[in-house]
Amino acid sequence: MKRRNFLKAILATSFTIASTASVLTPLSALAKVGAKNRDDWLTTGSHFGAFRMKRKNGVIDQVKPFELDKYPTDMINGIKGLVYNPSRIRYPMVRLDFLLKGHKSDTRQRGDFRFVRVTWDQALTLFKQSLDEIQTNYGPSGLHAGQTGWRATGQLHSCTSHMQRAVGMHGNFVKKIGDYSTGAGQTILPYVLGSTEVYAQGTSWPLILDNANTIILWANDPYKNLQVGWNAETHESFEYLAQLKEKIKQGKIRVISIDPVATKTQNYLGCEKIYVNPQTDVALMLAIAYELYSNNLHDKEFIKAYSLGFDRFVPYLTGAEDGIAKDVLWAEKITGVPSDVIKALAKTMVSGRTQLLMGWCIQRQQHGEQPYWMAAVLATMIGQIGLPGGGISYGHHYSSIGVPSSGAAAPGAFPRNLDEGQTPLFNNEDFKGASSTIPVARWVDAILEPGKVIDANGAKVTYPDIKMMVFSGNNPWSHHQDRNRMKQAFHKLECVVSIDINWTATCRFSDIVLPACTTMERNDIDIYGSYANRGVLAMQKMVEPLYDSLSDYEIFTRFAKILGKEKEYTRGMSEFDWLKKLYNDCKADNDGKFVMPEFEQFWQDGYVHFGDGEPWTRHADFREDPEINPLGTPSGMIEIHSRKIERYQYDDCKGHPIWMEKKERSHGGPGSDKHPIWMQSCHPNKRLHSQMCESQEYRQTYAIQNREPVYLNPEDAKHRGIKNGDVVRVFNDRGQLLAGAVVSNNFPKGVIRIEEGAWYGPVGNDGSVNGGTEIGALCSYGDPNTLTLDIGSSKLAQACSAYTCLVDYEKFTGKLPAVSSFNGPLEIGV
Ligand SMILES: Nc1nc2c(c(=O)[nH]1)N[C@H]1C(S)=C(S)[C@@H](COP(=O)(O)OP(=O)(O)OC[C@H]3O[C@@H](n4cnc5c(=O)[nH]c(N)nc54)[C@H](O)[C@@H]3O)O[C@H]1N2
Ligand SMILES: Nc1nc2c(c(=O)[nH]1)N[C@H]1C(S)=C(S)[C@@H](COP(=O)(O)OP(=O)(O)OC[C@H]3O[C@@H](n4cnc5c(=O)[nH]c(N)nc54)[C@H](O)[C@@H]3O)O[C@H]1N2
Ligand SMILES: [Mo]
Hints:
Blueprint: H1 6-12, E1 16-19, H2 27-30, E2 42-46, E3 49-56, E4 59-65, H3 80-83, E5 93-95, H4 96-101, E6 114-117, H5 120-137, E7 143-146, H6 159-170, E8 174-177, H7 183-192, H8 205-211, E9 214-218, H9 222-225, H10 237-249, E10 254-258, H11 264-269, E11 272-274, H12 281-294, H13 300-306, E12 307-308, H14 310-318, H15 328-335, H16 339-350, E13 354-358, H17 369-382, E14 391-393, E15 437-439, H18 443-448, E16 453-456, E17 459-462, E18 468-472, H19 476-479, H20 483-491, E19 495-500, H21 505-508, E20 512-515, E21 524-528, E22 535-539, H22 552-562, H23 566-570, H24 575-589, H25 599-605, E23 607-609, H26 620-624, E24 638-639, H27 643-648, E25 677-680, H28 696-699, E26 709-712, H29 714-719, E27 727-731, E28 736-743, E29 751-753, E30 762-763, E31 778-779, E32 806-811, E33 826-829
Helix pairs in contact: 6-22, 7-17, 12-15, 12-16, 12-17, 15-16
Signal peptide: 1-31
Domain Molybdopterin oxidoreductase: 88-561
Domain Molybdopterin oxidoreductase N-terminal: 44-84
């Protein structure tokens, strides 16, 4: 059938389901799509680190870590599977009913996985027509294309930028503020310490190792989480963790990890551990503060010289205000930490130099602002902020923070926004009274309750009436909370577009799906070592894009052409023109400071090294002179009490940090009589969120009966008749999933872990893929966000609260459905 008659014909024909997912093309058949023969080692980079790769017969054959990477992650073994796997999107595809009825389609069919193959031209034209329809009927408040996520590394092809620039050339759209990672933390800390802190470079590891007597790892698992980075990761932090391990062994540094579970870092370092009941850290911090205060161990000089509002906080601490002293006995009941342990911990913190290293997990829960604020109060009372090896950090588990930066200028990126003077086709800025920016994790709320006014960070946000969403470089059907609520919201959307490499659940619940290629199928450059900024890395194409996939640059160049704006989009430059420009701009910025060869030489070498950086202490300048170097807070001081926040008059974020009960909490908290188990959905040890779940062979290194592992406490599991390797049904009133049991002493009673990023694979009661549309459908693989709670952290940050989540579980005894997550759609033939 001629392609141009395709759409007409499709409207006239009845459909049969041709086959479930196409069979994976054997590697040998892919050989013919290989790039021109260059079978020497090529260089590329990824969130997982930099690699050298070698082809054989046009197929990626060997992958080895970059020479400078002394601590490569095990995930290197999953890299090849990112390119070759059955989840790859092969062609542009359109959901069957959307192809038939466009914006009047039956949106309840979304998720039934029936898609039709179309040409790139057809897909991009449909995409543009949908945008036309939305802009015409609703204006920019009807379109949300503002979500971001862990798009692949690379300064040129960074896919979300491409999508937003191109869609922005068509018209304006709703955007987001904040992120899922640190939503609560990055909102509260500017009030307290004057910057987000979470994304700031921290005190250098060498200074911490030389000066700290005690390191507190609070909700922090760096040994797991430093395997990946925002840019190509160098893994230098692992050298410092190795030194730390040695120092612990020699008795030179004490490391105390405060965490409900035994973490990978604890097991690696062999450090001390304090178990705390989930979500109760603020109570523990308050009791430490009470100990310090009542024993006169707090640093009164420092508090006076560098902070504001301690006097407003003390009446709450002592109970003068509410009749409850936040003492160790009070905290013991809530936290499960024995009073003598709290007392000893308080004493330890003020004897010698103490470095607090906070993880991010405890602010991804209801009232997640509070532990971050209270930790800053504690650090202020200890009085070592601004000293090497003392004070507080909120980032040493992330992207090389703490590794001294080279100080070089990093290469810039392809522009996300329109160039100066460019205007969109639909030049309309009328959001009809709704907000044009909404808190990142509240978009599902907005779809469900358009027009609703909420509080957010001292302002009012009016939810726009979102009718269309475009996703690129993020996977909301992995990262967002409460799948069944998302299904309800998606029923209300007229059109959803996804640009991705793989058939993620987000694509499954979309109408137009566009295949992007991986970084191994295009040329790019990246910063080597996020915060370390160790150099510039060439990302050299290994193979041509598989199937019909294209680079994000090419996808949106073609799209811009349909808009009549190709030149505006590309500035008339090719992929290599851009790479040269980004490189040469960086070279000019570093002129006279860092030597960079000509582009051609760099491309041949694959790398430019900037050298090591200088050790540095966070907040040292503030400590040195708080008047000349004030913090960015309203007062320039550390704000233990914030007048600004107090003036907002929020019931869930007051003028100073307080302990508040959670909506759901295990260990005797609300909801625990019905669903007694706390589910933590921590970041995966062998993935980056949902990325690499598709890497088939590698997934088998951890999957249990093809399912995502659920980590269980031995006693709890035994009580439920469950042993290692069983399939378990985990459930609450929001949803249900299957997962494979791993019984482990690392997990205490009342706590389970299912790592986020496990691919959602809903099935109907009969096990069918189509049945995945049902509200309450069973997830066949084990996506924890089938169960999580979708509420804002508080009126302040309105951030993701995924860790406020109770569940129960049982041995699964029904007929085991096949996993529906990985094989792509049911392709409809005509
Ligand atoms: N329950 C629970 N939920 C969580 C969390 C949690 O701890 N618990 N953590 C939250 C946090 S901190 C985060 S950061 C988010 C992460 O959420 P996301 O950033 O959405 O997660 P990823 O799985 O990395 O999604 C990236 C998507 O981009 C696609 N992609 C990668 N490279 C390219 C490319 O070159 N082109 C195109 N077009 N697409 C590409 C990938 O295939 C993938 O589908 O999850 C959040 N959700
Ligand atoms: N391998 C790998 N590394 C990653 C990522 C990945 O996907 N894979 N993602 C990256 C991203 S985007 C982010 S945002 C960071 C996430 O960084 P974090 O959010 O810090 O990481 P998590 O591992 O989810 O959680 C850290 C620790 O917090 C503990 N914890 C959870 N709840 C509580 C609590 O109530 N109290 C206490 N005391 N402890 C608690 C957990 O048990 C866990 O050991 O990781 C980054 N690094
Ligand atoms: Mo994150």
